[in-house]
Amino acid sequence: MSINDFVSFLIVPGLVILYFSMKNLLPNYFNEKGRNLATKEDISEITSLVEEVKHSFTTETEKLKANLLLLTNVYAGIVSEERNAIIDYNEKFFLWLNLVSDISLGHTNKNNNAELDEFEKHIHDVYYNVLNSETKFKLFVNNDDLINLGNEMQIKALELLVPNLISYIYDLKINNCETENAQLMKEYDSIAKLREQTDKLHDDFTKTLIKNYKIVLPISVKFQESCRDHIYKLISSKVPH
User: Fold this and answer.
1) Residues 6+ positions from 126 with CB-CB distance below 8 Å
2) What is the average pLDDT value for the chain, to the nearest integer?
3) Residue 160 · residue 190 · CB < 8 Å
4) d(C-alpha 52, C-alpha 11), whole Å
5) This prediction's pTM
6) How far apart, in whole angstroms, are the C-alpha atoms of residue 241 and residue 202?
7) Dist CA 47 CA 77 (whole Å)
């Protein structure tokens, strides 16, 4: 066998082997490359979706935080208004209550009708402020028991204390006018009797006031205690979930 024939003998099987090897390996190689490429594309798409979901979640979370902050501020504002309404109503009501239950009539000169008129006007003005404050109190206070107790307290004061005071002032004015006329006429016996009448009016007013105030006082104390408890609950309360 010549050298050329021997070389040909070696080359031909090698080419055959190379052919079949390439035939089997190349598709596997390209298939694997295709799978790798597909995997990279899938990862890219998944990453993009994850980022999109993450962005959406972050956006919605920020919106939720903003809404929660707004809700918190609104709730805090309402709580503050409710607390202020309770305090304001207490201040104005008990100022009025102290006036209508003041034996000295605010240190008014009982023998001077002009001062008595001024005291009456002052009481009306103070009660007008009570009514205005009560409107805000009932608007913001979310406690029916407290509102009902406030109604009961005010009604009792109007029924038991105010008529006694108005009647006392009216009788004082009449007595003062009669005393003034008696002084002009120099009717000294009448003047003495009228002065005794003034003292009796004061005694009767005081006795009735004390009796009726004993009825109003427990209600007013209970109202104040309920207001205080309600305010403490407001302070410790949180935004409902």
Assistant:
1) 92, 95, 96, 99
2) 81
3) no
4) 59
5) 0.69
6) 59
7) 44
